[in-house]
Amino acid sequence: MSPADSVDQPIIRVEDFDLFYGGFQALLKVNMSIRPRQVTAIIGPSGCGKSTLLRSINRMNDLAGEVTTRGQIIIDKQPIYGKGINMVDLRKRVGMVFQRPNPFPLSIFENVAFGPRLHLGLSKTALREVVEKSLTGVGLWEEMKDRLYAPALSLTGEEQQRLCIARLIAVSPEVLLMDEPCSALDPIATDHIEELIRELKSQYTIVIVTHNMAQAARVSDETAYFYLGELIEMGQTEKIFTRPQKRATEDYITGRFG
Amino acid sequence: MKRHLDQELKKLKEKLFRMGLLVREAIDEATAALFQRDAEKARQVIKKDQEINLCEIEIDEFGHELIALYQPAAVDLRLITMTLKITNDLERIGDQAVNLAEIALVARAWPLKPYENLVKMAELTVKMMRDALDAFMQQDHRKAKDILEGDDAIDHLNDEVFEQVQNSLEKEPENIRAGVSLMLASHNLERIADLATNIAEDVIYLKRGVDIRHHIRQRRE
Q1: Mean predicted lDDT score pLDDT of chain A
Q2: Among the four residues A150, A245, B44, B208, which has the most C-beta atoms within 10 Å?
Q3: How much is the CA Rg of chain B, to the nearest whole Å?
Q4: How far B212 CA lies from chain A's nearest CA (Å)?
Q5: Which residues in chain B have Cβ-Cβ distances shorter than 8 Å to A218?
Q6: Arithmetic mean of pLDDT, B191-213
Q7: A187 touches chain B (CB under 8 A)
Q8: Domain with B69 in it
């Protein structure tokens, strides 16, 4: 995105998107627009298709086997379902953070350097700069700069999750997908990661799936409610949580659902 | 699914309803004291106001507890926040009833015509207030909308009372004390109608999520 692009122009468009796991339809004619440099939260009960949708945005579902799709997802004007899509490039542009932090069993430095080394072919000095910038971006540099070669797995859960985010931003993605990024963290670490999400949105488009509705309310600009594979309602988060338009959304938000 | 919060919200509504009954009684008694020149009734209204004030504190505390403990959203959140606002309006209506009672304690004989309008105003105001509370308890936004229309009639009567008192004072300036108390009583009734209107607007927001205050309809769209 160039700086001239308006924040109102969606960076991701999901158009009439269906997804099937074998014979089971997990997403039904989903249409939605995700705006750049905002946090979009996807909420809904288990099995509603929210993680499936998230994984469709960088085609992680392709790895699940027996997955077929119809419709299209367009990221920054480029349709990502079609021939000639370079998956490595797509996943560099659209990075993903998972429920459990999953650093490589390597050093802190190597975790962050892994992507840029693979994609960018940088000199040693440039690589070090990228590592410093990425760790600074997630608030880890000051703490880690003197132990960059310590094993990443020796870090706390929160630090590991931050490191995983640093690993993504090291390759300058456009979009960060987060699938329950705080569900394995304690409330204080959760608070820290939410603060990081707020900081990161000035540079990246963030789509977060969360079961924690209070978290969706706190960190997101827009919220989309899914049920049984369908997008029921999407709108400004403050509106969804105070004055939703659909009864089904209200029932879910207030815990009356079920 | 049955939620514990539903029981708590029911309690909250019941507390507000009890406060509403006390406020309604205060207005009924204050207007009766005013028109019947009943000093004892007036003193009772003034004395009982403390009970209304205690209700306000109790509901405020309970509403804040519910927000802190349950982190309500959507219609639940609107119910709690609107209850807190309505409580505040009811407390102020209680204060207006006290003002009317105080006027009743010092009231003299009044010029005839404005007095008739005042009786009419009191009837309409008491009805508005009763309907506003019913609209809240039944969460009936249509009833709430009807109430809004009643406010214009009361404003009109209030203007008439002022004009009539002024005219009568020009002719009989010695009635100045009676005239002033009559205007004050009329103003107090008009304020009660305004506060009942606020309650009706809050019921509409609670039920439909649409803020219609100050005639700014487009603001939140």
Answers
A1: 93
A2: B44
A3: 19
A4: 14
A5: none
A6: 91
A7: no
A8: 2-220
